Amino acid sequence: MKPYAEMTKEELSEEIASLKKEYAQFQKLGLSLDMSRGKPCKEQLDLSMEMMDVLNSSSDLYCENGDDCRNYGVLTGIQEAKVLIGDMMENNPDNIIIYGNSSLNVMYDTVARAYTHGIMGNTPWCKLDKVKWLCPVPGYDRHFAITQFFGIEMINVPTSPSGPDMDIVEALVSSDEAIKGIWCVPKYSNPTGWSYSDETVRRFARLKPAAKDFRIFWDNAYGVHHLYDDKQDYLIEILAECKRAGNPDMVYKFASTSKITFPGSGIAAMATSPNNLEDILTQLKVQTIGHDKVNQLRHVRFFGDIHGMVEHMRKHADIIRPKFECVEDTLEKELGGLGIGSWTKPLGGYFISFDSYPGCAKDIVDKCKKAGVKMTKAGATYPYGKDPKDSNIRIAPTYPSMEELQKAAKLFTVCVKYSCAEKIYSERFKKEDQ
Amino acid sequence: MKPYAEMTKEELSEEIASLKKEYAQFQKLGLSLDMSRGKPCKEQLDLSMEMMDVLNSSSDLYCENGDDCRNYGVLTGIQEAKVLIGDMMENNPDNIIIYGNSSLNVMYDTVARAYTHGIMGNTPWCKLDKVKWLCPVPGYDRHFAITQFFGIEMINVPTSPSGPDMDIVEALVSSDEAIKGIWCVPKYSNPTGWSYSDETVRRFARLKPAAKDFRIFWDNAYGVHHLYDDKQDYLIEILAECKRAGNPDMVYKFASTSKITFPGSGIAAMATSPNNLEDILTQLKVQTIGHDKVNQLRHVRFFGDIHGMVEHMRKHADIIRPKFECVEDTLEKELGGLGIGSWTKPLGGYFISFDSYPGCAKDIVDKCKKAGVKMTKAGATYPYGKDPKDSNIRIAPTYPSMEELQKAAKLFTVCVKYSCAEKIYSERFKKEDQ
Q: Which residues of B90-123 are buried (b: 16+ CB within 10 A; e: fewer)?
């Protein structure tokens, strides 16, 4: 089939009529599918069920150093968990704090602490007239929700397959003292799946921020979440690179095992410089009696070491790789050559990013919903939910079964075609019709 | 022996000389004991080891409503955990949010949220010139640390066995709009072990705060932590009483299973009014992906219901009751009639509160430390660590073994006698000596 933009009025009319019928048939199926959130599927969760056996009533619940994991104390996490998560994050265990079950909560707390108490002696953000933030787009809605909640002005930064546009990042960060942070998902980014190039990471580490309390919020959520054995993205480690560049305190790095073991019951962590750690500890010791050490121990005993985790991730990949390929194949088969959409083909992470013909994303998501398939809200990948082109849609293929996914992906392409055909028709021929 | 204050100079000199020797002998023992924190002992932790068996790799990890506890979602906690904790807190499950492992963290967050965003539409506290707080004394050092961390001015309120002095509380709360909260441990209070009388609770519920965003921080940490079967304190339930009094939104109530199962790996909760819950949820949904539902399920499966928890608490009591009695007996035997100290005899909770002859607490704690027994820092039971009488010492008898405790308690009484005798001697006879 030829590109919609090159069709005659009659051809496009026929295509729309045909798509209308196809869409109506889908509506009759009474589907109830969800491709909206990056949730592991049941089979993935089952991979970690043996984690429920590694601690039992006969177990020794003491750490290697003799601390009783059941009792109070050990504020920053047990050493063996720091070693495991250090290997996962590619950081020294001494640079790590192990938290509770949600890295999002750690990020929220980090913004909140800067807001109430300031970073390393700088003015608390609540005392400033204006705080701004850089948001590479498309990005992660829950990041944007945090900065929005604190009334922080978010500035879009375009991204490409090599990462955020560093010319823009450098220019803004070095000139505006009100810019205090940037959200980064550097590897298998949410939603594009792109990973930052070596040059991008190097330029991040060499930023010259106008604000002393500017921090890079480096959410390495998908650090070990590869889809393939033979094709994997590698990232320059940002803490080390910042240290080499003379900017040791510029990064807070986040990660968790949410998409490795159980999303609700994993362990989250931050890696950062000794100065930042000291700053954080003045609050942490007031904030909590410590995090769940038994669960930390459970994770350590389950994985053994980083190799155990890598082997475990391979099993995840075996489950979800076919799902990514199913969506990609369907997109290619149904939309290839039509000139109404482009999409990413990530080597890891949880999402495929789809860009439709401009002005159609909301309508596509709406059409999907009305046929029983829930997609991430259009606009969600942009601050304030506002996609200026109304074009980007995040596809989350992991949760549905293969059978469901095939239906959902096919329906999605029907909605894309239907919506874009109508849009193009309206742009090209509506005046004639009037 | 007669009261120190009635001794002659010679009698007191002899007593001091004798105590000096006794103290020196203790120093030679090379003790290393800890009565400083309210930590369960190993035998208490062992009571919950079977909780490690209730979930295993063959378990069904779904809630009663079909939600998978392993995955994301269920922001406010699983229903069956709300029912269990509701029974524990004496509140409707619908009024409850289940959090992570630390109720202290929930209290911190609650203050932090009021500071950054305000309570139910009121001005965020960070935008106010002054925020004040009432602190019944002696009280819990980690409460005071939170309000101090946020620069909130803390005002001491004296307490008696029936609770805080409500004349003072009412007068201050109704006249000063800057007063936004009060820390309360209403049952088996930290450190006195006293429980609020019915009249005290009723007067709390009928407060007429000048500030619309005044909240009672009701930390019912020891709600089910009785030492005796036949002698137990009962408390009027504060949420219900506030509702009856027309003040439904005035209370945040906190609790946890930290001293029921594992201090590091329990579950914490808040109970409050629907209006407050709605207010909290606007933040909670931004702050976290939810708390550890697997651990919630583990607690529910372990206890079954509130009766199971009550039976479990009886076992705790059997372990720690003799420890409380050991300390109380030693205090009575060694200090009775000397007029240099008084102490509480709680029916539950984790502490005995000791008041020495004024001006001696720091010295007593210091003397204990130098003989190898760590006590809670003198002054810790007052805001800013400042006990105006330098008199109160919190004794935490649960953690040491009985054998250790006997030694530690004995040493403590030697230090009390030694320090108070010196102090009284200095006050009465020092001028003569000069």
A: bbebebbbbbbbbbbbbbbbbbbbbbbbbbeebe
Contact map slice: B 163-222 vs A, CB within 8 A: none
CA of A266: which chain B residue's CA is closest? B292
B10, B149: one domain: no
The shortest C-alpha distance from B112 to chain A (Å) reads 8
Asked if B215 and B176 touch (Cβ cutoff 8 Å), the reply is no
Average pLDDT, chain B: 97
Instruction: Write the pLDDT tens digit of every residue in B5-37.
Output: 999 999 999 999 999 999 999 999 999 999 999
Residues of B in contact with A116 (CB under 8 A): 112, 115-116, 126, 150
CATH number for the domain spanning B179: value is: 3.40.640.10
The candidate with the shortest Cα–Cα distance to B78, out of B291, B271, B268, is: B291
Domain carrying residue A88: 61-304
Three-state SS at A395 = strand
B149 CB within 8 Å of a chain A CB: yes
**Amino acid identity at A206:** R
Q: What is the ipTM of this complex?
A: 0.96
Domain count, chain B: 2
Boundary residue ending a domain (A256, A274, A304): A304
Domain membership flag for residue A55: no
- Structure confidence by residue, pLDDT tens digits, B245-258: 999 999 999 999 99
Judge whether B50 is closer than 8 Å to chain A, CB to CB: yes
Which has the closest alpha carbon to A250: A259, A258, A240, A260?
A: A240
CB of A61 closer than 8 Å to CB of A297? yes
Interface of A with B in 81-100 (CB under 8 A): 100
Q: For residues B156 and B202, state if they share a domain.
A: yes
In this complex, is the C-beta atom of A293 within 8 Å of any C-beta atom belonging to chain B? yes
Same domain, B368 and B231: no
Q: Where a domain ends, among A283, A304, A325?
A: A304
Site of tokens 């009575």: B332
Say whether residue A287 is in contact with chain B using an 8 A CB cutoff.
Answer: yes
Contact B286 A108 (CB under 8 A): yes
